[in-house]
Amino acid sequence: MGDAATGEVTELLQQLIRNRCVNDGTPESGDEARSAGTLHAYLEGSGLDVERFESRPGRESLVTRIEGTDPAAPSLLLLGHTDVVPVNEDRWTRDPFGGELVDGVVWGRGAVDMLNLTASMAVATRRLAGRGFRPRGTLIYAAVADEEANGTFGAAHLADHERDHVAADYMITETGGFPISLGGDVALPVLVAEKGTMSSRLRVTGTPGHGSMPFGADNALVKAGEVVRRVGAYEPATRIHDQWRAFVEGIDIPAELAEPLLSEEGFVEMCAAIGPIGRMAHACTRTTITPTLVHGGSKLNVIPDTVEIGLDIRTLPGDGLDEVRAMLDDALGDLSDDVEFVPGHVIDATASASGTPLWDAIARVTEQFYAGAPLVPVMMPGATDARHLRPLGTVSYGFGLFSEAISLEAIATMAHGDDERVDVESLGMVTEMWEQLAVDFLG
Ligand SMILES: [Zn+2]
Fold first, then answer.
1. Which pLDDT does position 2 carry in this prediction?
2. Residue 297 pLDDT > 70, yes or no?
């Protein structure tokens, strides 16, 4: 990769970080119009037609395309998001929205989730357009709002209301492509599936009373404390499903390590013993229920009669409301009767097949960066915008490319964590990879 492209992607990433498109989950947050503007300014002038779509004030997504010459040839959508999650500024070594470049590393919220990919996809698209790339299949680039909430104002909005602009046979979004090595040769993960979500609440009820006389009170907050403890301690059953098996069998690891990864017996103990990667192994092999929010109480001297606990629930394929309800009953035991389960919006787990023509193209192209490294299919514990595209019939993967400086552990700790940062070498690599992939796959 020329230094020019690496410089371009680095600069564009720094700008996107500085735009501070923080999505706190409220419709008013995000303000992705800023980054849509940055990307628009970057892309125009290269012969590309850029369109912007506003789903509500400030929530803008951008789409551009290089039209293919053969309507029968498969199309490819490169989809990045422009929003980021909030930060706890005190815990960062550097300004999370400064986009500082220090010793070949760009610092800032979104550096690996996923402004790095959003920027590199834009640079690749612009460079292809700039040199008159005329593929057989259409290349679409989209930079969307609101991935960090539910995609309502971004990918879901486009899929529902602007389908013609984003419909594609194949799609790539975050993330994957961080070299994994568990004691053997390097493998590159491709996200082919993601768990479902069921953001829900537990309503804990008690009896109101005066805070000055707590003895024998039916305090909903005290009960909620025990409810949180029990849900937090609950361990849903380990399930070694086909997706997990394909992943473990796809990476090159010694048998003594592979065996426990494929055995339900003792699995949780093993996760505890293998560090940050254990957290991912644990999440990939069960439905998880995580208490993350609490709302309750009205006044300091009033014993609360209602407390609500927010639950981040991530389901494996096959687990629906009934299964989750049964797990909660199990977790709560004799407290079940005092607690009402209020299910939220349910989005089922989704998956795309590996071994497609796009899969093969990724394998050919990545061979030049990581020779001999196989692609391995992975289920993602979190959700991406792929869940909005898969129902349209789009084969959707999560992929990118990172240097060996970025490990699976690093990604797992930095994404949504502190001191998020990415090396410039990774930015150059991934930009070149998108260019080569577009040429290889779209012809
Ligand atoms: Zn993301």
1. 62
2. yes
Calculate how far, in angstroms, residue 21's C-alpha sits from the geometric centre of ligand 1: 13
**Which residues touch 244 (CB under 8 Å, ≥6 apart)?**
262, 284, 285, 379
Residues 8, 60, 147, 435: which is the catalytic one?
147
Mutual angle of helices 424-442 and 3-18, in 10-degree steps: 110
| Selected catalytic residue, list 31, 32, 83, 319 | 83
Q: Which pTM does this prediction carry? A: 0.88
83 is catalytic: yes
Quote the CA–CA distance of 77 and 157 in Å, as a whole number: 16
Q: Is 404 a catalytic residue?
A: no
CA–centroid distance, residue 116 to ligand 1 (Å): 10
Rounded to 10 degrees, the C-alpha dihedral 207/210/212/214 comes to -10
Q: pLDDT tens for residues 97-145? A: 999 999 999 999 999 999 999 999 999 999 999 999 999 999 999 999 9
Query: Ligand 1 centre and the CA of 80: distance in Å?
Result: 8
Strand-pairing partners, residue 375, are 188
- Judged against a pLDDT cut of 60, whether residue 204 lies above it is answered with yes
pLDDT at 219: 97
Q: How many residues does the chain have?
A: 443
Output the CA 355–ligand 1 centroid distance in Å: 24
**pLDDT confidence of residue 29:** 98
Residue 3 CA to ligand 1 centre (angstroms): 27
User: What number is the average pLDDT over the span 262-286?
Assistant: 91
**Residue 193 exposed, middle or buried by CB count within 10 Å (0-12, 13-18, 19+):** buried
In angstroms, what is the span from residue 143 Cα to ligand 1's centroid?
Answer: 12
